[in-house]
């Protein structure tokens, strides 16, 4: 039995955004996300897209009807090409948009290392791609349980809370 091919690609919406956060270890994010996908059975082809507050706010307004920036939005494209094709010639399973300035603010306010917060947020986005949501209290508990399991898969020493 052959293993499924995993493809995780990381994009920054603009070079300025990437340069504003030199502490982000893109290779580590790629490695951890790829590892989690292999261990968990999450969708195999993922684009991680870091965007500014303006871009995530527009996406949030367009797809969720919420007119404010957020930390993460997930889009499952298992049956169609991804909206922003980022040079891809194959069908992607999904994209996870990360509001980098929003995450930076949370990181500072809650004194959580930015890279750890990004990893936690990616886990949250992957669980959404797998079809889970947190609209009802019971669904939220299920997602929290899955997040903890994923954190254990990545050998987290300390729990990161939302």
List key phrases describing it:
162 residues, single chain, alpha/beta, four-stranded mixed sheet, Collagenase (Catalytic Domain), globular
- Rounded to the nearest angstrom, the radius of gyration is 15 Å
SSE order in H/E notation?
EHHEHEEHHH
Shape: globular
Q: Supply the helix-strand structural class.
A: alpha/beta
Please provide a written account of the structure.
The chain has 162 residues and is α/β, with parallel strands linked by helices. The protein has a single domain, classed as Collagenase (Catalytic Domain). 47% of the residues lie in helices and 15% in strands. The protein has helices at 15-19, 26-40, 53-64, 100-110, 114-129, 137-153, and strands at residues 7-12, 45-51, 72-76, 94-99. It has a 4-stranded mixed sheet, sandwiched between helices. The longest helix is centred in the C-terminal third of the chain and has 17 residues, at 137-153. The chain is globular and about 35 Å long.
């Amino acid at each position: 039995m052959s293993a499924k091919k995993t493809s995780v690609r990381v994009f920054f919406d603009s070079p300025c955004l990437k340069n504003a956060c030199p502490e982000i270890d893109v290779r580590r994010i790629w490695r951890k996300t790829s590892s989690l996908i292999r261990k968990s059975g999450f969708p195999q082809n993922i684009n991680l897209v870091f965007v500014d507050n303006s871009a995530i706010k527009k996406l949030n307004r367009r797809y969720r009807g919420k007119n404010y920036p957020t930390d993460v939005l997930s889009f499952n494209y298992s049956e169609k090409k991804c909206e922003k094709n980022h040079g891809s010639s194959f069908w992607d399973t999904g994209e996870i948009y990360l509001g980098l300035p929003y995450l930076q603010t949370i990181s500072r306010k809650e004194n959580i290392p930015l890279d750890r917060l990004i990893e936690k947020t990616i886990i949250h986005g992957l669980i959404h791609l797998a079809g889970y949501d947190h609209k009802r209290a019971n669904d939220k508990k299920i997602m929290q349980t899955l997040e903890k399991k994923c954190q254990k898969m990545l050998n987290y020493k300390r729990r990161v809370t939302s």
